[in-house]
Design goal:
By secondary structure, the chain is an alpha/beta fold. Helix content is 47%, strand content 15%. Bound molecules: nicotinamide-adenine-dinucleotide (NAD). Nicotinamide-adenine-dinucleotide (NAD) binds next to α1, α4 and α6.
């Protein structure tokens, strides 16, 4: 299905995990891509991998830390220089931080999580929206989390930052819907990516696989999600098929967030 043919989409955190899986899905639908990440080596690997599978897709890479405002402005400028427009932004780069209780949480790590997960998403909106406004068209998908719709033990800055992503999504929808810009968020549950593998190592350093199996038992589907199951929803939200969906945070979690 080539329903994103010649659309230009920026993906942050594109070198691995959900960003890379989504980059492949969008490439398969004909989109041209700006891949952004602070991990330069993995970013170049990602570009090679996608281009070997989809040689017709035009890809540029921009090394950037999304918590750095100038670096964000630069990935936007580079995209406009290369492609002349921006149809979509997948505002995905994020980190989990360390797992610790509120009173023990390392304040420097707390601030880092906020800088990347909250400010990084905000800077993306701040610099991409004016380009989309001029076009009278844009599709934005911010990455929240189930931690953006409920609490998660020992992950306070992550939960705070992801609730903020959901809030920023609502405001962007209200303020820019009139310019043909739709802004939504996704709230993935536990999806098997390097970030989640690292979290299971923290929960049970001796046997991360056991922690993963135990965690999956809480889910109605009794399994973790897979990156392509996120990518397909993102591709839908970036497409014309989602033209009247705006300001929503969509859980993609096998139903887990309905349990209490
Ligand atoms: P990951 O760690 O597997 O990949 C994240 C990518 O983002 C990496 O390539 C990393 O280098 C890049 N990145 C991190 N910080 C960056 C920064 N400051 N600037 C530029 N690049 C940066 O993580 P993932 O699981 O793919 O997560 C992607 C997003 O999805 C995150 O926002 C995360 O919070 C969210 N999320 C993931 C899950 C999950 O289960 N995997 C669940 C809910 C939400």
């Amino acid at each position: 299905m080539k329903n994103l043919e010649n659309k230009v989409v920026i993906i942050t955190g594109a070198a691995m995990g959900l960003g890379l899986a989504t980059a492949k899905e969008l490439a398969s639908r004909g989109a041209n891509l700006t891949l952004v990440d602070y991990n330069e080596n993995s970013l170049e690997e990602a570009k090679k991998e996608i281009n070997s599978q989809y040689p017709a897709v035009k890809i540029i890479t921009v090394v950037a830390d999304v918590s750095n405002e100038d670096a964000v402005k630069n990935y936007v400028d580079e995209t406009v220089k290369a492609f002349g427009r921006i149809d979509g932004l997948y505002n995905n780069a994020g980190i989990e931080g360390k797992q610790a209780g509120i009173t023990e949480y390392d304040v420097a790590i707390f601030k880092k999580v906020i800088d990347i997960n909250l400010m990084g998403v905000y800077y993306g909106l701040r610099y991409v929206i004016p380009v989309m406004q001029k076009q009278n068209y844009g599709r934005i998908v911010n990455v929240a989390s189930v931690g953006g719709i409920r609490g998660v033990l020992n992950q306070m800055p992550y939960v705070a930052s992801k609730h903020a992503v959901s809030g920023m999504t609502k405001n962007a929808a209200l303020e820019y819907g009139r310019y043909g810009i739709n802004t939504n968020a996704i709230a993935p549950g536990a999806i098997l990516t390097p970030m989640v593998a690292e979290a299971f190592k923290q929960v049970n350093p001796a046997d991360p696989k056991a922690a993963e199996t135990e965690y999956a038992q809480r889910n109605p589907t009794k399994r973790l999600g897979l990156p392509h199951e996120i990518a397909k929803v993102v591709a839908f939200l970036l497409s014309e098929d989602a033209s009247y969906v705006n300001g929503q945070t969509i859980a993609i979690d096998g139903g887990e967030s309905n349990i209490y």
